[in-house]
Specification:
α1 (about 15-20) crosses α2. The chain is globular, with a radius of gyration of 16 Å. The chain has helices spanning about 15-20, 30-40, 70-75, 100-110, 130-135, 165-170, and strands at about 5, 45-50, 55-60, 85-90, 115-125, 140-145, 155-160. By secondary structure, it is of the alpha+beta class. This is N-acetyltransferase domain-containing protein. It holds the Pfam family Acetyltransf_1.
């Protein structure tokens, strides 16, 4: 059956939480309050659905989100406008099937019409070279490193310039054409408005 990438629905947050916390040590655990925070503040919060099951998700937030992540704050201290990929999780039995590449192609398409940069981090731990290679194949480059406060986890801070963004910003400003594929997620705190990353 085909894989569908779509916005998460509120009743699916428990499934997202369970998927996250079963992902293993390369993904930080979260609780119900954190997944609710993402529901309320993430500009991009989409799931992969196949055969009626959620098999993965990706969460990304703009620089304006009231996010307490030290990695998010690292980018916020250095860059005025960006979309930050907080986490991507693929269900273990479905890894290696292209869902990660589908998510990154989708989030990049979403970001490039709104922000000049797409950011994320990768844990620098033994056996995580595939994650660095994956991001490198999408054009991300390292712009710094940090040890996450209160942990011994060193992370590589990665960034990708959105090449199309200057043209789109100059041509359309914050008023994108009214097309379904350009629609922004209606955040609960901003119902009735379109999130444009401004």
């Amino acid at each position: 059956m085909p894989i569908t990438i779509r916005d998460v629905r509120e009743h699916e947050l428990d499934s997202v939480l369970a998927l996250n916390n079963a992902a293993g040590p390369s993904i930080l655990p979260m609780d119900a309050a954190k997944v609710r925070f993402f529901w309320e503040h993430a500009e991009y919060f989409r799931v992969a659905e196949q055969d009626g099951l959620i098999t993965g998700f990706l969460v990304a937030l703009s620089q304006d989100a009231p996010h307490d992540s030290p990695n998010f704050r690292w980018f916020k201290d250095r860059h005025p406008r960006f979309l930050y990929v907080d986490r991507i999780v693929i269900a273990r039995p479905r890894r290696g099937g292209g869902r990660g590449r589908m998510f990154y192609a989708d989030v990049q398409s979403f970001a490039e019409v709104r922000w000049p940069q797409l950011c994320c981090e990768v844990f620098l731990q033994s056996g995580n070279d595939p994650a660095l290679l994956f991001h490198g194949s999408f054009g991300f480059r390292e712009v710094g490193q940090q040890v996450m406060p209160g942990t011994d986890i060193r992370v590589s801070m990665l960034m990708k310039e959105m090449c199309s963004h200057p043209f789109i910003a100059e041509t359309y400003g914050t008023r994108l054409p009214d097309q379904p594929w350009l629609a922004a997620r209606a955040l609960p705190g901003r119902l009735g408005t379109l999130a444009t990353g401004t």
